[in-house]
Design brief:
- The protein is an alpha/beta fold and 466 residues long.
- It has 14 helices and 15 strands.
- It has 3 domains: 4-268, Rossmann fold (3-Layer(aba) Sandwich), CATH 3.40.50; 281-401, no CATH class; 417-463.
- Helix 4 (129-141) packs across helix 5 (216-228), helix 5 (216-228) packs across helix 6 and helix 9 (318-339) packs antiparallel against helix 12 (388-401).
- The longest helix is centred in the last third of the chain and has 22 residues, at 318-339.
- It is flat.
């Protein structure tokens, strides 16, 4: 069955034709590990997980590379400002290495919680400085880069076309409207490949241009080429990467290799929070741990994300999460009921199940259309006859969904007496308006693996998911 992807490069849905008939090579832009990954970040990882699983459903082997950006990503899209790693290290009074290790671990903990597969190759920017230097030197040799007093810049005037992915009109865009223009740049939209480091800069390496550090874009180009070659099948990332990072990756690759690095470019849309942007100032920045602390299995968020196509904005609400939690419970119940079902399936029944599978397969192959695919999952889950063959089909679907459909729903655990006593102590503190004591007890309850929620019907106690 043919596979179709919406290709940002061509701005249309293209039939997928792999370079290698057996192994698909994918590059995904991973996290800049200077802070917690949000559920918005995780939405991109969920769509990438579905992509992997869909390709494997079609019989392909996968070679998937994801980078960890632990240097070079500045706080501005322009070539000025502080490195995000250094900024976080300064604010948290830690070394950049400590920051990177801490947030990398949390990132992979979140992937595990969401049952997102780890790519075959995970590579850190700081482990590939030599590859980046070689890449920059080759760009210099090919005439696509030049040196100033502050950096090595890519010269976009050497390209036949720039940009390629985005519709940004760089020729008519007023210089300095978006970024502070370096007077030594030949063109305001030339971007830094390598940046000369001030004396007090913590993250720097020896180079032909003195102590310095990489620009953000060169990292992915160097690592992608090292592990996947000059051209590979698919490049993924969030939609926010199109006009800067991915555009500049393409420029670098054309300058060094004469090729666009990937044939298909897939981008996931933004996550909205109650119809608006996620923002610290609005207090609506949610992490995977926030879902856990509300008493939900994090897999619920994964199932929730399937209610919307990855190329459309998804609106997050706690009501939506609650609905997804009930859906997950029903799907898992259906699996268990069918597993023990004894209804006989007629030839007609079996043909119906075959057709459901074909419809599901067609949906995922149509640019990962998960809302449509889920309609066929539900058709199977609600199948009138209860039989292990239905469970087998649901399990097959789950190789794409990754929602652990074969897990039994957790029965409500008996709350330990110790926790019940603490809840009573908290209640007494609240009645006495001792809010500090109330908060202290609540935190202690959390540390012991439980969460309390004050509702109009009283206090609810639930176990925090691991």
């Amino acid at each position: 069955m043919d596979i179709y992807f919406y290709n940002t490069l061509t701005r249309k849905k293209d039939k997928f034709e792999p370079i290698d008939s057996e192994e698909i090579r994918i590059y995904s832009c991973g996290p800049t590990v200077y802070k917690d990954a949000t559920i918005g970040n995780m939405r991109t990882n969920i769509f990438q997980d579905v992509l992997r699983r869909t390709l494997r459903y079609n019989g392909y082997k996968i070679k998937h590379v994801m980078n960890i950006t632990d240097v070079g990503h500045l706080v501005s899209d322009g070539d000025e400002g502080e490195d995000k790693m250094l900024k976080s290290a300064r604010e948290e009074h830690k070394t950049p290495l400590q920051i990177a290790e801490h947030y990398t671990k949390l990132f992979f903990d979140d992937l595990k919680s969401l049952n997102i597969e780890t790519p075959e190759i995970v590579c850190k920017a700081t482990d590939h400085i030599n590859e980046m230097l070689e890449y920059v030197e080759k760009l210099m040799e090919n005439g696509y880069a030049y040196e100033t007093s502050t950096a090595i810049y890519f010269d976009i005037s050497k390209l036949d076309k720039y940009p390629i992915l985005s519709n940004l009109d760089v020729e008519n865009q007023k210089a300095g409207a978006r970024v502070e223009v370096d007077p030594e740049k030949r063109n305001p939209h030339d971007f830094a490949l390598w940046i000369k480091a001030p004396k007090n800069h913590l993250m720097k390496w020896d180079s032909p241009w003195g102590p310095s550090y990489p620009g953000w874009h060169i990292e992915c180009s160097a690592m992608g080429q090292k592990y996947l070659g000059d051209q590979f099948d698919i490049h993924t990332g969030g939609i926010d990467l199109i006009p800067t990072h991915h555009e500049n990756e393409i420029a670098q690759s054309k300058g060094k290799c004469g090729k666009i690095p990937a044939r298909y470019w897939l981008h996931g849309e933004y996550l909205l929070i109650n119809g608006g942007k996620m923002s610290k100032s609005l207090g609506n920045v949610y992490l995977v741990k926030d879902i856990k602390e509300r008493g939900y299995d994090p897999i619920v968020y994964k199932l929730f994300s399937y209610s919307c196509h990855y190329r459309n904005k998804l609106n997050f609400t706690w009501e939506g999460i609650d609905s997804a939690a009930k859906s997950l419970e029903r799907l898992r119940n259906s699996y268990q009921i069918n597993l023990n079902g004894t209804d006989e399936l007629t030839t007609d029944d079996k043909e119906k199940l075959v057709q459901i599978e074909k419809n599901f397969h067609r949906a995922i192959n149509d640019d990962l259309n998960m809302p449509l695919a889920m309609s066929f999952v539900w058709e199977a889950a609600r199948f009138e006859k209860k039989n292990p063959e239905v469970s087998n089909l649901l399990a097959k679907f789950d190789t794409v969904l990754g929602i652990k459909i074969d897990e039994a729903n957790s029965e409500k655990e008996e709350i330990p007496q110790e926790i019940l006593d603490l809840v009573e102590q908290r209640k007494a503190a609240r009645e006495n308006k001792d809010w500090a004591k109330s908060d202290e007890i609540r935190d202690l309850i959390n540390q012991k693996g439980y969460i309390v929620k004050d509702t109009k019907n009283g206090v609810e106690i639930s176990k925090i998911w691991n």
